[in-house]
Design goal:
By secondary structure, the protein is mainly α. The protein contains two helices and no strands.
Length: 49
C-alpha cells in the first residue's frame, strides 16, 4: 500500500476529509481511534487466514 492509498484508507475508515486526515495534526483521541481501526483490521486479516 502506498502512502496515498494508506491516507485514503484512513479517511474512509475514520470518516475524515483530506484536510482532516493528517496524522501530524491528530489529537491523542484521534491517534487512539486510528490505532483501534488498524488493530481491528489486522485481527480481521489474521482470522481470515
Amino acid at each position: 500500500m502506498s502512502k496515498r492509498q494508506a491516507y485514503k484508507w484512513m479517511q474512509a475508515k475514520l470518516g475524515l476529509n483530506e484536510k482532516q486526515a493528517h496524522i501530524a495534526k491528530f489529537s491523542e483521541y484521534m491517534c487512539d481511534q486510528l490505532i483501534a481501526v488498524c488493530t481491528q483490521t489486522q485481527d480481521n486479516i489474521r482470522s481470515a487466514a
